Amino acid sequence: MVAIEHLLQIRASQAKVYEALTTQEGLGAVWTSKLLVKPEPGFVNEFNWGEDYITKMQILELRPGEKVLWECTESDPEWVGTFICFKILPGKEGFTTVILKHYNWQEVTDYYRSCNYHWAMFLLSLKKYLEEGTGMPYVWK
Q: Which regions form coiled coils (predicted)?
C-alpha cells in the first residue's frame, strides 16, 4: 500500500485548524464551495466538483484540536477505500503543525501523482485561509 504525506506549519491555533477541517464554512473556504459537511462521527461529508462528480468521505474519528479521519466511500475508483487523516499538533512560536496522510492507495499511478500535488495545494489553501482570511477553493461558475 502507498500513502501521500505532507507536513505544514500554520500560524493559527489547533482549535482554528480543526474548525477549518471539520465545518461547512472552513472546508467551503478551503476545498470546494459546494459541499455538505457536518462535524459528526459517522456522517458522510459530500464534496461536489461539478458535472455529477461528488466525493463522499465518511467521518471515522474526530478529536477536537488533534485529529480528523475520513474514509472515502465514493469518488474516483482509486480513492474509494482510502483514508485521509489530518493530525493537528502543537508547533513552535504560535504555529500549529498539520500532518496530512492519505493512505491505503493500491499503487503509485498518474492519478496518485496528481492527487499528491493537489493535496499540497489544498494545504496551501488551508494556510492562506487561516493566516490571511481567504483560501483557494474550487469555485462553481
A: none
Which residue do the cell numbers 502543537 mark?
90
Radius of gyration (C-alpha) of the chain in whole angstroms: 14
Q: Decide: pTM greater than 0.90.
A: yes
Could you tell me if residue 62 is inside a domain?
yes
Residue 75 falls within a domain, yes or no? yes
Rounded to the nearest 10 degrees, how much is the dihedral formed by the CA atoms of 74, 15, 96, 138? 40
| Three cell numbers written together for 29 | 473556504
Q: Tell me if residue 25 falls in helix, strand or coil.
A: helix
Q: Does 82 reside within a domain? A: yes
Tens of each residue's pLDDT in the chain, 141 residues? 899 999 999 999 999 999 999 999 999 999 999 999 999 999 999 999 887 889 999 999 999 999 999 999 999 999 999 999 999 999 888 999 999 999 999 999 999 999 999 999 999 999 999 999 999 998 766
Torsion of CA 127, 128, 129, 132, to 10 degrees: 120
